[in-house]
């Protein structure tokens, strides 16, 4: 048993793999270009990892916001998916709080337009 205690501990690893076809594939490529992943990643594996990292961060914030709106700690996948797809500010027909009003998801991020003359910054 002592020999096992001396073995180095391996960090947990979770591999996610998905294939996108057709329009979904084009949308993924467009998102990668839009957020500049191609500038940060040196190869396909790094690109996929960067995309998954940002996607999971976004999903985590949306799950927290949805949970705060519905009061459910563990929201149902289908209800969450419907809410995300609808883009509506309602859950089950009731008005929901804006994502920016949720203290767990609200972060001030300055936004700069491509045009030098028009700049928008959150205060």
Automatic annotation (TrEMBL):
Residues 114-123 have a biased composition (Basic and acidic residues). Keywords: Plasmid. Residues 93-105 have a biased composition (Polar residues). The lineage of its organism: Bacteria, Pseudomonadati, Pseudomonadota, Acidithiobacillia, Acidithiobacillales. Residues 91-123 are annotated as: Disordered. It comes from the Bacteria. This is Uncharacterized protein. It comes from Acidithiobacillus caldus (strain SM-1).
């Amino acid at each position: 048993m002592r020999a096992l205690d001396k073995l180095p501990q391996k960090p947990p690893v979770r591999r996610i793999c998905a294939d996108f076809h057709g329009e979904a594939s084009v949308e993924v490529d467009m998102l990668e270009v839009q957020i500049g992943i191609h500038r940060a990643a040196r190869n396909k594996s790094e690109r996929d990892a960067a995309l998954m990292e940002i996607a999971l961060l976004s999903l985590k914030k949306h799950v927290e916001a949805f949970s705060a709106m519905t009061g459910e700690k563990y929201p149902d996948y289908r209800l969450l998916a419907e809410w995300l797809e609808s883009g509506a500010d309602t859950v089950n027909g009731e008005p929901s709080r804006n994502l920016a009003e949720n203290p767990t998801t609200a972060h001030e991020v300055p936004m700069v337009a491509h045009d030098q003359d028009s700049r928008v910054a959150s205060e």
